[in-house]
Specification:
The two termini are about 25 Å apart. It contains 10 helices and 13 strands. The strands form 2 sheets. The chain has a 7-stranded mixed sheet with strand order 1-2-3-4-5-6-7, covered by helices on one side. It has one domain (about 5-255): Metallo-beta-lactamase, Chain A (4-Layer Sandwich), CATH 3.60.15. α1 packs parallel to α5 and α7 runs antiparallel to α8. The chain is α/β, with parallel strands linked by helices. The protein binds zinc ion.
């Protein structure tokens, strides 16, 4: 999701839910009963729920990102908190079904609401909330706006609240869960300006969060040129498997990064061409990167916005 995630669309979603006569308090059950909406163990002690390739709706509780947890000998790290208080509470309950070890860390991978609004569900665990050093400022700028939009869709009691990081990663950091360590890397502006990735030492699995989209079209909210650079950095980590922010629970890193890089490169090159040819932005949003249309879910929802973002970044090069 993005900062300008379309006020009218969010409102429409809320309205249609009300017109449908749906009872909000019953909706989580509807969402959770969807096929595949469960945690699977993708590596030893690593449990991941796949988020559907969808936008936030009352039916899905904004549970649209890939979230989960890692169990160490001593404690549990939550890899992503979920998209709402309801989603975070669901995850916490699932953790408690599997282990009674303390939940020591909750990772806030970046500012987008589908990744950080579940954080408040873990308050009673008093975890360390891990985030990029720029996350606090990003939450100051957007947190209440995001909360308001979620309240419109889910209602105040399910939306969640803004939670700030208590461990702010400047460059790198490491957390020991007992028998396994998780290493964090704070990235330069890419998907957003506060992207945090991590890697589990026991399995070697990479958690790039929304620096890696699979199936669902990447959404650009940081820097296009920067994202291509950070994709190279991820590649250089030489992990073979990754849990992307959106898409299948576990993917091969190389082909997934190739797909991401192909889209971002086409977006960059065709936007540059449009700028040089004096194509107005209103036309560019309909023409740039159209060859990618059949390769990504939600292409029509996000590609035009990506072009607008790319245009703003590249027109002053
Ligand atoms: Zn995101």
């Amino acid at each position: 999701m993005r900062a300008d995630a379309g006020r009218s669309r969010w409102s429409t979603t809320r309205r249609s839910a009300l017109f449908g006569g749906l009872c909000l308090c019953c909706l989580p059950t509807l969402g959770r009963s969807a096929e595949g909406f469960d945690l699977q163990e993708v590596g030893p002690g690593i449990f991941i729920r796949r988020g559907p390739d969808a936008e936030a709706t009352p039916e899905n509780d904004d549970a649209i990102a890939n979230i989960g947890f890692i169990v160490g000998d001593r404690s549990v790290l939550v890899t992503e908190s979920g998209g709402s208080l309801a989603d975070g509470a669901w995850l916490r309950a699932e953790i408690r079904k599997r282990t009674d070890k303390p939940i020591s860390h909750v990772v806030l991978t970046h500012v987008h609401p589908d990744h950080c609004f579940g954080a408040a569900a873990f308050a009673e665990d008093k975890p360390v909330y891990v985030g990029h050093h720029a996350l606090r400022a990003a939450l100051d700028a957007r947190g209440e706006y995001y909360r308001g939009r979620l309240v419109e869709i889910l209602g105040a009691d399910r939306a969640g609240s803004v939670v700030y990081p208590t461990l702010e990663v400047t460059d790198g950091a490491e957390v020991d869960l007992g028998g396994r360590a998780v290493r964090f890397a704070a990235h330069g502006a890419a998907h957003t300006n506060c992207d945090l990735s991590m890697r589990d030492s026991a399995s070697g699995i990479l958690f790039p969060a929304d620096l890696l989209f699979v199936t669902r079209i990447p959404s650009l909210d940081g820097s296009l040129v920067g994202w291509l650079k950070e994709a190279d950095r991820l590649r250089a980590m030489r992990a073979t498997k990754a849990v992307p922010g959106h898409g299948p629970r576990l993917v091969d890193v190389a082909p997934a990064l190739d797909d991401l890089t192909r889209y971002l490169t086409i977006l960059r090159d065709e936007t540059r061409k449009a700028i040089v040819a004096d194509v107005p932005i209103e036309k560019a949003v309909r023409t740039v990167a159209q060859s990618e249309r059949d390769r990504w879910v939600l292409f029509d929802t996000y590609n035009g916005r990506n072009v607008t973002q790319a245009f703003k970044e590249l027109e002053w090069e």
